[in-house]
Design goal:
The structure is a single chain. This protein is an alpha/beta fold. The chain has 2 domains: 7-116, Response regulator (Rossmann fold, 3-Layer(aba) Sandwich); 135-203. 56% of the residues lie in helices and 11% in strands. It is built from 8 helices and 5 strands. Strands 2-1-3-4-5 form a 5-stranded parallel β-sheet, sandwiched between helices. Helix 5 packs antiparallel against helix 6.
């Protein structure tokens, strides 16, 4: 039996009663692990600057939206909060479409309405898992894109050096080292690599730097050898035609 994934949560709410009520509700959902309480966004920022990585951050609707927006934006840029699901905790009567849209525009990933139920909280953990996977995948794609770009540049450089007659042994060694990470990819990571590699190589322009030595034609020695071969070939064909003439003439009836 596989172990249950635990999601650590941070609850930010100026009201002690409501944040304690939410913490108590999370204890009914086994998927929640460590749950920390903060009475303000400033206190929440302190947790975001610590060593703990958070999976879910609950933020009370009583905090001004502009402050929540700034906090979420700043937290998503930190390792402690980059993969967290930011959930606004609202009153039941705040479920109209206009309120939902406004909450999404300030960076919230989801909403939790009072009263808290086990089913709602379970959905929050599922949302957190999906968000973590999506953001991790997005960062991985960005990293792969940079690496593939460098690989293409290295190929272009080796092509230029090779065309100019230089040894590319060191370049090939560096190229292999750059590509070594691709051998470790599997699953979704491997699919991301194939998708990006195909697109980026297809869109890659022709190398700007390719050494092209001006060609003045074949040397006199090469020309002479080519002429001798052509002459020998022609002489052979002519000799064959001469040999066939008596046979053809013998077949013709006499007048």
């Amino acid at each position: 039996m596989s172990a249950i994934t635990k999601y650590d949560a941070l609850i930010i709410d100026p009201n002690l009663d409501t944040r304690m009520r939410l913490k108590t509700a999370t204890t009914s959902v086994h998927q929640f692990g460590k749950v920390q309480l903060a009475g303000s966004l400033r206190e929440g920022e302190g947790f975001m600057n610590g060593d703990q990585e958070w999976n879910v951050v609950f933020i009370s609707f009583t905090i001004p939206r502009d402050e929540i927006s700034a906090f979420i934006k700043d937290s998503k840029e930190k390792p402690q909060g980059q993969d967290a699901a930011y959930i606004l905790v609202l009153k039941t009567n705040d479920q109209d479409s206009s309120t939902v849209a406004q909450n999404m525009m300030i960076g919230a990933d989801g909403q939790l309405f009072e009263p808290y139920s086990v089913d709602y909280l379970l959905e929050i953990t599922e949302l957190a898992a999906r968000i973590k996977k999506e953001r991790s995948s997005a960062r991985e794609k960005a990293a792969l894109k940079f690496l593939i770009h460098d690989v293409i540049e290295q190929i272009n450089l080796m092509a230029y050096l090779k065309s100019a007659g230089y040894d590319v042994g060191r370049g090939i060694k560096r190229f292999k080292n750059m590509c070594s990470v691709f051998h470790t990819l599997e699953g979704d990571s491997l699919e991301n690599y194939f998708e990006l590699a195909v697109d980026m190589f297809e869109e890659s322009p022709f190398p700007k730097k390719i050494y092209q030595k001006s060609y003045s034609g074949a040397s006199s020695r090469v020309k002479k050898r080519m002429e001798q071969k052509m002459l020998a070939k022609l002489e052979g064909e002519m000799a064959g035609e001469e040999d066939s003439k008596p046979v053809e003439e013998a077949k013709q009836p006499s007048a």
